[in-house]
Amino acid sequence: MTARNSYIGRFAPSPTGPLHLGSLVAAIASYLDAKAHHGQWLVRVEDVDGARNVHGADDHILASLQRCGMHWDGEVTWQTKRYPLYQHALEQLGDLVYACGCSRREIADSQLNQVTHHNQALIYPGTCRNGLAPGKVGRALRVKVPQSPHCVPAFDDRWTGHYSQDLTAEVGDFIIRRADGYWAYQLAVVVDDGAQGITDIVRGVDLLDSTPRQLYLQQILGLPQPSYLHVPVVLNEAGDKMSKQTGAIAFDDGSDPQQLLRSAILPAARFLGLDVQADSIDAFWRAAIPAWAQLLQTLPRGA
User: Where in the sequence is the signal peptide annotated (predicted)?
Assistant: First the structure.
């Protein structure tokens, strides 16, 4: 593998609870990719959704990362300290932004919304694009997606291969500030990645579908496009993505490092396809970094 000194990666957990095995998989993948490329690994707490934040979860997450031997470069950042950056981006978007007074139910009931996105997300039919209907109050802010068959952002994912999405047909104008006043994930993540100089994003494949919207925002905000690698996500017994919403439990209960290695770190590595044997956390990382570099060579784009 060729070293890239300019590599800057990141892990961006939401403080809605402690890390579980699924989030550990994403953390390990992003850490290994940064280390295999001799790059920097940043940690950003994505706490922009204040309604879901759990008090003290950010401290627990940071402590768990350190107990697993993952040490970040520079200072940890919190999205709630970056609101001026999001406001500036909103102003840059100018006339592409408009107020929307539609509820989810109204969008679902729209005659224009007979087909939904493959992940069952609602396609916005553009009801408020040319102004609010009488009696409606603008709550959320949306960004316009060109009504063009050519608005199909595409990229080559380092794990899954080529991916594209017709934003006009499959998404429509999407929200950048929610009706409850919180900044939407799509805008915040793009602004943060641009401000931090992120060159490589490694995260779960559940976010693959979000990437074209982020590419679109990067383009109109004049931000560079990072490289992407979306790893498989851990599923629970019901076949759903393991998450706090589906009852995933914390992998780190404060037990001794050997137990943490056996019960969480090694299983997460095996899930990523790494056959690593180690009797300590330090030994795990010494073996896992070259193993990850070798694994990358088998992926669609290599490393």
Answer: none
Count of domains for the chain: 2
Binding-site residues for L-glutamate, in ranges, read 10-14, 46, 185, 203
Binding-site positions for Zn(2+) read: 100, 102, 124, 128
At 35, which CATH number? 3.40.50.620
- Full DSSP string of 27-72: HHHHHHHHHHTT-EEEEEE----TTT--TTHHHHHHHHHHHTT---
In this predicted model, what pLDDT tens digit does every residue of 225-272 receive, in sequence order? 999 999 999 876 555 555 555 556 788 888 788 999 999 999 999 999
The answer to whether residue 274 is domain-embedded is yes
Tokens 């992003």 locate to: 30
Using DSSP, how many helices (H) and how many strands (E) does the chain show? Answer: 10, 10
What is the pTM (predicted TM-score) of this model?
0.91
